[in-house]
Design a protein that fits this description.
It contains 24 helices and 24 strands. It has 712 residues and is of the alpha+beta class.
Length: 712
Amino acid sequence: MYNQNTTQKLLRLAGKLLAQAGSSGAGGADEQTIADVRQVINFADWRYYIQDDPLLADQEYDKLFSLLKQLEQRRPELITPDSPTQRIAQGLTRAFPTVQHLVPMLSLDNSYNEADLLDWARRNGSLTGSSDIEYCAEPKFDGASISLIYEDDRLVRGATRGNGIAGDDITVNIRQIRSIPLTAPFSRFGIRQAEIRGEVLIHKDAFKTFNEQRLADNLPPLANPRNAASGSLRMVDPREVGKRGLVAFLYHLAFYQPESAAGEEEALKTHYGTLEMLQELGFRTPLKATRKIAGIANVVEWCHRFETQRDDLPYEVDGVVIKVNDYALQEKMGMTTHHPRWAMAFKFKARQATSKLLRIEFQVGRTGSITPVAKIDPVPIGGVTVASVSLFNEDVVREKDLRIGDTVLVERAGDVIPYIVKPLAELRNGSEKEIRFPTHCPVCGDELYKAPGESAWRCVNINCEAQVLERLIHFVSKNAMDIHSLGEANIRRFYSLGLLRDIPGIYRLDFEKIGTLEGFGQRSVDNLKQAVEHSKQQPLHRLIYALGIRYVGETTAKTLAHAVERLPDLEHLSEASLLELEDIGPKVAGSVIEFFSNPDNRHILKQLETLGLNISRDTPRSDPASHQLEGQTFLFTGTLARLKRSEAEAMVEQMGGKILSGVSSKLNYLVVGEDAGSKLEKAKKIASIHILSEDAFLKMAAPGEKTKDTED
Ligand SMILES: NC(=O)c1ccc[n+]([C@@H]2O[C@H](COP(=O)([O-])OP(=O)(O)OC[C@H]3O[C@@H](n4cnc5c(N)ncnc54)[C@H](O)[C@@H]3O)[C@@H](O)[C@H]2O)c1
Ligand SMILES: [Zn+2]
């Protein structure tokens, strides 16, 4: 539809218009400028909605859109019915049948600051003649919008928003999402047919796991949770959809047909009432994070407060949606062709920006893998200045076709790790340089090696300085031996001074010498000494994790620690006996064997033993108050609403219980969160397994556990 030349031309035009919009005057509202802006927006919509591959940052797009609105306001006679301000963007694909929505699915009007909200409230006052409007403020989920139709209490259709009038029929995929009930008793509320709207998303941790898996499988990671959600909905194989851990929040009743004898339901008089109804019908709704608020000043305050909690939520939100609560008032206000007048999105600060790729640094990890890290022109994203971005491995660089000197689109989604979405290849001028991968380790100079089927180049010199340092840093890190006072900075300093060479050296540090270093007083030396001494008593699983064996994360370290009496026993475990352990596959087993058969590593373990580190199997802490789960086995499945999975598992272990990795007759309790899948089905068939909700588990484990009230 748009060829390379047109694309380049449109992007240059976009740049020019953005610069104009930036310099206050906004240029002349002449016919040509208006046509230009429209052309650029249509192009951006196509890239975003059809190609799933945007070329502009969201805030650039939004700037252009509001520029067009301003220009049209000044020259209303130039508004045409096909202007992007007059309709919703195109978003139909050919892969699925197209279906009509019962009521058009509109977009939202956007606001970016208090002034916009105050303006809106003023207009609301004059439209309704009411001076104290009650609002509902709910999260603006950053996912993919869906529409569901229920008839006679059964889900009959699920569709994407498409162009707002018609969408893709994705019913088979929708049925894979376990937070969407296949039946819902609408008839209890006198409703025969209903079209409800909501958003499908992928939790941040599910997204992270999903991407880690992709990297391990040598596939490029997906850009962000939103793309992952919208891409997932349009997958051709519904079983794949089921595996993506999608969740759906429903927040809108777009249309309903009452049963003949229906009375006026209270639930159908306000937006909040409808959310309560949907919640009661078994849907996941934004209710818990929604506030009924009177007065726009209070709404503004809530928006700011909610923005500070943004990163605490398990999924991405990009703003707050404010809705007039009373349906009678909503009716009075009506809608434009683009958005309802009774709702307004308050957008949080953008987390995308464009920058320049200056150079690539190749970092050597503790296992020797070489990670390319992009150094970019520092750019603020979501309150943090981003200057380096990991590019994971060579394949990712090749797949994105990055070049030094490229203008790149950088995003920092909910997690703190920023990434490069893509280069804006259209902005190249020919001076960009290809990225060359080193053939030799940038630190020790040894030749690099790449195993067949892997994407990471590796330095296999065990004495490579970079690896030694990274291993030391990992060893003392929080989830490993947790020697806080011996942080990265100290390790680098001691190493460069020759005071520390290897892991056992941590326990032989010359504290007298350290005391003579600048910045070290008696107090800090004592602290350091004590912290090092204290770490000797860390449980075995922490020590195993701290050793930095490839593929051995915290969970596997625990499994290994449970499997032996003493650390040296691991040297004698065969591959077969390792494979018998929970969650250990051939890759992990191979790596464990390789580690323990290496004489250097064995020598290190011997020294650690001599130095007095605890190398015996973890014994449950003898805290009498917390033995209440002694001897019981647990497994968690689905998404927990209150606890992180790791927190829940730690609770069980602290109270003497054990975590199993699969459903079997050995399992006592299966704790079921949202979207539980095959494990739940399997557990239902084994009579001895107790199936618990998260709440029931919390009651059983620790009465009065804290809950986060901002979570759904
Ligand atoms: N980068 C680009 O080139 C490009 C191109 C097109 C669009 N975009 C981005 O997409 C945006 C426009 O997309 P849009 O029309 O989906 O609008 P939007 O994302 O600004 O907001 C509307 C959508 O919010 C969703 N939503 C989430 N929570 C909601 C809630 N609680 N209540 C109601 N709705 C809720 C709905 O799906 C609704 O369709 C632009 O502002 C821009 O950021 C970017
Ligand atoms: Zn090296």
